[in-house]
């Protein structure tokens, strides 16, 4: 399974890469901003996009809106990563089309299992 991780924080990307590759045995592609992430999504056709909700420039919700309008990538499930995980925040992200939300900071040992669980519970799987 290939995952595209889009996050502007280098430390988060490093920990995520180690977690997803070593613990989850996923193939991982990374981007440091939403524009690059959308370009990579079109090229790489990942099975899932982990998308930081708050980034400079284009934020996660705006990137998801663009993604959902692109027939080539709109089928790719998206999981937001954010420190804002109040029930109303999670509901808002789901209403935008995300299949789930992972709180930051995340646990690198459980991140792959959380992702697999969200994919299993997703209506499109």
Q: Helicity, in percent?
A: 40-55%
The helix tally amounts to 5
Report the strand count. 5
- Beta percentage is 15-25%
| Helix/strand/pairing category | alpha/beta
Q: What is the terminal separation in angstroms?
A: 13 Å
Q: Please trace the helix and strand order, writing H or E for each element.
A: EHEHEHEHEH
List the strand order in the largest sheet: 2-1-3-4-5
Shape: globular
- The averaged pLDDT comes out at 95
The major pleated sheet works out as:
5 strands, parallel
Description:
A 5-stranded parallel beta sheet has the order 2-1-3-4-5, sandwiched between helices. The chain has 5 helices and 5 strands; from the N terminus they run βαβαβαβαβα. It has 125 residues and is of the alpha/beta class. The model has no long low-confidence stretch (mean pLDDT 95). The protein is globular, with a radius of gyration of 13 Å. The protein is 44% helix and 19% strand.
Attribute tags:
alpha/beta; 5 helices; five-stranded parallel beta sheet; 125 residues; 44% helix
Summarize the structure.
The chain is α/β, with parallel strands linked by helices and 125 residues long. Helices cover 44% and strands 19% of the residues.
């Amino acid at each position: 399974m290939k995952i595209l991780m889009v996050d502007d924080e280098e430390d988060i990307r490093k920990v995520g890469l180690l977690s997803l590759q070593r613990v989850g045995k996923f193939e991982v592609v990374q981007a440091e901003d939403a524009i690059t992430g959308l370009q990579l999504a079109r090229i790489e056709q990942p099975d899932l996009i982990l998308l930081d909700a708050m980034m400079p420039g284009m934020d996660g919700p705006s990137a998801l809106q663009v993604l959902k309008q692109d027939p080539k990538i709109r089928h790719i499930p998206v999981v937001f990563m954010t420190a804002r995980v109040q029930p109303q925040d999670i509901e808002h992200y789901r209403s935008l089309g995300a299949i789930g939300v992972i709180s930051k900071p995340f646990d690198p040992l459980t991140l792959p299992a959380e992702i697999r669980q969200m994919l299993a519970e997703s209506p499109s799987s």
